[in-house]
């Protein structure tokens, strides 16, 4: 019985150590969420004004740009899947991967081939384990994304969209580009979301522009075509950066919730093991007392028989 008590005490000690780790990770995630939200809010004015500028140019220039032209018979689509680099975030990565799988099945049902582009080690490991080809992957900055990473991703996706089949560079041309990421709604709600990025559908935020919203008038210099050539890639990069920032905030919120749940479970386990250890210790004491009393009674009976 004493061995059982020692085992439970060892479990209590290891659970307490685990609780310290999960508690620390919970606090770190909570502190980083605020910074992630501030970064997303700071990027919002630039994205909003860039969207208005692109909307105005696309509306008043009457220019058919390659990034806004719908292909007649789309045959191939690219999907950027935004996951995390690290685990311990609950169902964060698995939820966005499920959303990506649904989109893959939808596109394949429409007769389109799918190219996968991955952000985050979890997504890369998921597809490599299933031996599914990945065109390109970006890792190492899922919880603290930078605009340089977004610009690199945007340039690569635009290159694939504009590429012709059988080009000398060996880049596979695609007719559509989609992004699957996790939208940050609140600390308690993060929603896996799939959006089509190319061909461009110029939108502002998540809501359609109101009827009273008047777009600014611009004079194009040197020409509307060259203005669109400069603005549209920046617009694509800004939307990718927005998706990365949203995903980072969602990842940290999911990690905080998962670590809080782990800490609470550790508390419950410690209480359970402490109660069982106390019961085992009391049972051991009771048994020892019973053995002593039994021994005393046996001795008394032996003395009485000798008399």
From TrEMBL:
| One biological process term in Gene Ontology | proton motive force-driven plasma membrane ATP synthesis
- Check the UniProt entry and state the signal peptide residues, or none: none
Which InterPro entries does the record match to this protein?
ATP_synth_F1_ATPase_gsu (IPR035968), ATP_synth_F1_gsu (IPR000131)
Q: Which Gene3D superfamilies match?
A: 3.40.1380.10, ATP synthase, gamma subunit, helix hairpin domain (1.10.287.80)
Specify the domain of life of the species encoding this protein. Bacteria
Gene Ontology molecular function, alphabetical: ATP binding; hydrolase activity; proton-transporting ATP synthase activity, rotational mechanism
Where in or outside the cell it occurs: the entry states: Cell membrane; Membrane
Q: How does it sit in the membrane?
A: Peripheral membrane protein
Job of this protein: Produces ATP from ADP in the presence of a proton gradient across the membrane. The gamma chain is believed to be important in regulating ATPase activity and the flow of protons through the CF(0) complex.
Give the record's subunit note.
F-type ATPases have 2 components, CF(1) - the catalytic core - and CF(0) - the membrane proton channel. CF(1) has five subunits: alpha(3), beta(3), gamma(1), delta(1), epsilon(1). CF(0) has three main subunits: a, b and c.
The cross-references to NCBIfam families, in alphabetical order and at most eight, read: ATPsyn_F1gamma, PRK05621.1-2
HAMAP family registered for this protein in UniProt:
ATP_synth_gamma_bact (MF_00815)
Quote the protein name from its UniProt record: ATP synthase gamma chain
Give the originating organism.
uncultured Nocardioides sp
Species classification = Bacteria, Bacillati, Actinomycetota, Actinomycetes, Propionibacteriales
């Amino acid at each position: 019985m004493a061995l059982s008590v020692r085992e439970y005490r060892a479990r209590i000690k290891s659970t307490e150590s685990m609780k310290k780790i999960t508690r620390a990770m919970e606090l770190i995630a909570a502190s980083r969420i605020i910074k992630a939200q501030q970064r997303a809010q700071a990027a919002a004015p630039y994205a909003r004004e860039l969207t208005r500028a692109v909307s105005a140019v696309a509306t008043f220039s009457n220019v058919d740009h390659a990034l806004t032209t719908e292909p007649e018979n789309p045959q191939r689509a690219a999907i950027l899947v935004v996951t995390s680099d690290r685990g311990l975030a609950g169902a964060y990565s698995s939820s966005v991967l499920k959303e990506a799988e649904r989109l893959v099945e939808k596109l394949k049902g429409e007769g389109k081939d799918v190219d996968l582009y991955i952000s985050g080690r979890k997504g890369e490991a998921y597809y490599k384990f299933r031996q599914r080809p990945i065109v390109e992957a970006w890792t190492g900055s899922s919880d603290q994304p930078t605009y340089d990473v977004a610009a690199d991703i945007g340039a690569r996706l635009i290159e694939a969209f504009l590429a012709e089949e059988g080009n000398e560079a060996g880049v596979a041309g695609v007719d559509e580009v989609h992004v699957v990421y996790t939208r940050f709604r609140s600390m308690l709600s993060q929603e896996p979301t799939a959006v089509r990025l190319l061909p461009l559908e110029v939108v502002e935020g998540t809501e359609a522009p109101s009827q009273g919203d008047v777009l600014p008038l611009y004079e194009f210099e040197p020409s509307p075509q060259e203005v669109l050539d400069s603005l549209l890639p920046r617009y694509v990069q800004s939307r990718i950066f927005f998706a990365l920032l949203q995903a980072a905030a969602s990842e940290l919120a999911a990690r905080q919730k998962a670590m809080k749940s782990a800490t609470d479970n550790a508390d419950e386990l410690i209480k359970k093991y402490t109660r069982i250890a106390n019961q085992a210790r009391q049972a051991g004491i009771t048994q020892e007392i019973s053995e002593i009393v039994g021994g005393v009674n046996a001795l008394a009976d032996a003395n009485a028989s000798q008399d």
